[in-house]
Design brief:
This protein is of the alpha+beta class. It is 26% helix and 28% strand. It is globular, with a radius of gyration of 22 Å.
Amino acid sequence: MEKIETFELDRWSEPDEQNRVKHIGMADAKETFEKLEAHLKEKGMLPDEYFLYDVDMRTKARELPDFDFALCVPNFGGSEGVYLDISLIYRDEDGVQISLPFATGKTLKEDADAFFWMSRIAAECSLMLNGRGRTYEKHDVELVLKPEEMEYYAKLLQNRAPEGVGAEDEGMEP
């Protein structure tokens, strides 16, 4: 079992006399992007073409909006590759829902495997941004392989087996 610590994005006041705290704002947007980028890099999940910060700081506050959720969507692009678009969904003072582009990732690959890989990256980003500082437990799940993948790994393992239990014993070519 692995424990996953999500990003703490809310800023809170010091406790008052009654031990109450107040929400005083959100984390810095650029720092949050850099933290997410470093997290993906550490996990070997950074998209291979690019991962870019999308918030235009000339028109937006440096602080993240107090968002309802981060929407992380992989999609086939208009040109080549698979894209990952991350938007922060929040409400303005009038209750109108607003979508703030936060980050974009891209891979040049265009097949279903690339789409599934970008979907996995999207899930990781969603967990980190939407977890709001919670810790989650991740339990090992059963490995599922396609038949050709099973055959490949079986051969690989047989070639690493102790002497007398190798591929030759099974009638396979190493």
